[in-house]
Specification:
The complex is a heterodimer of chains A (193) and B (150). Chain A is an all-alpha fold and 193 residues long. Helices cover 67% and strands 0% of the residues of chain A. The radius of gyration of chain A is 19 Å and the shape is globular.
Chain lengths: 193, 150
């Protein structure tokens, strides 16, 4: 690693690079981890690694993708470290493909006093909070599916879980978010059947 | 397609749409200073404390050479010791002693087991099974309480 203090121009360029991508990297990490402090640690490590590869990344059209991939990998590794300890019991959880009663998962109550037409920012904040409150397995699977466009098979492989568990986790997470979407008014009618 | 499948598809589409509409989270303001602090800390580390790939090329080549030489020395030296000292150690005699010791141990264990009342053995096995089940249940309860709800 080169000494940053001897390279002011390179450092200035790297600062600009970091400012362009830091929100994206942090968002990727915090949505997967559901924890800002851990996401900050992951983001720091992503940019430290980016600095080591800065000669290749500067000016590259794929640098954003590289950063996102590294952030995703580091966040998943972080989750796996903790999950591995509990895998035995995790696999004991009942998994139902058809999402029966057990498939309800976490449900976030929508307060009665909440106005029907909350502004967009408030709704987004509620959804972010709900995402953070999901169990780690559900959140990671949901985020990889909807934000990173991973397939169910890819998610199962990356998280080291069975395909059935991934599908159930994603379904439970969606059902957990459903009351918030209905409160937002975008799914009230179409989700009822 | 059943009503449930249709509802699931709608829910998937709505959740996907809602999540994609979320703006990016703003990174903490101190992230840049943390990154530069970490870069400076790592730059200040002596080379031998860094990752092997960041070692000076000469040091990497030297270490690989030393490791290769030590490996070769171990294989060649070990082979020579066995070839030169093998007959003097009398492996057949040692093997006989080891087998005799094993046989005596087996007899001793069989005698000891024979003196234990069978009921004690069954009770011991039952106790071990109960303790194992209790530990398993405790672990599962701890997982559900501490991890799933975290």
């Amino acid at each position: 690693m080169q000494n940053p203090s001897t390279e002011p121009a390179r450092l200035a360029e790297f600062t600009t690079f970091m400012r362009a991508y830091k929100d994206m990297v942090f968002s990727t990490a915090t949505r997967l981890l559901g924890n800002d402090a851990q996401a900050e640690d992951i983001s720091q490590e992503v940019f430290v690694r980016a600095y080591a590869h800065f000669d290749e990344l500067r000016g590259s059209a794929t640098s954003g993708g590289w950063l996102k991939t590294v952030a995703t990998n580091l966040a998943i590794n972080h989750l796996q470290r903790y999950r591995r300890r509990w895998r035995l019991f995790s696999e004991m959880e009942p998994v139902q493909e058809d999402g029966g009663e057990d498939g309800a998962g976490v449900e976030f109550p929508v307060p009665d006093s909440m106005p029907a037409e909350l502004d967009t920012e408030q709704h987004r904040a509620l959804i972010e909070d709900a995402l953070r409150e999901l169990p780690a397995d559900q959140r990671a699977a949901l985020v990889l599916y909807h934000f990173e466009d991973f397939s169910y098979q890819e998610i199962a492989a990356r998280l080291g879980a069975s395909l059935a568990k991934v599908k159930t986790d994603i379904r439970r997470a969606r059902l957990g978010l459903r009351p918030l979407l209905e409160a937002r008014g975008i799914g009230r009618v179409s989700l009822e059947h | 397609m059943s009503d449930r499948d249709e509802a699931d598809l709608k829910l998937e589409r709505l959740v996907g749409q809602a999540l994609r509409e979320l703006p990016m989270r703003r990174a903490p303001s101190n992230l840049e200073s943390r990154v530069f602090g970490e870069l400076a800390r790592r730059a200040a580390m002596p080379w031998w404390q860094r990752s092997f790939l960041q070692w000076p090329r000469a040091a990497r080549v030297l270490l690989l050479g030393v490791c290769t030489a030590l490996g070769a020395l171990t294989i060649v030296g070990g082979t020579r010791i066995v070839v030169n000292l093998g007959p003097a150690l009398g492996p057949a005699r040692e093997l006989d002693r080891a087998l005799a010791l094993l046989s005596a141990s087996k007899d001793l264990i069989a005698t000891l087991v024979g003196t234990i009342p069978p009921m004690w053995i069954y009770e011991g096995l039952a106790l071990a099974a109960v303790l194992y089940a209790a530990l398993f249940a405790l672990g599962a309860a701890a997982y559900r309480t501490l991890y799933l709800e975290a």
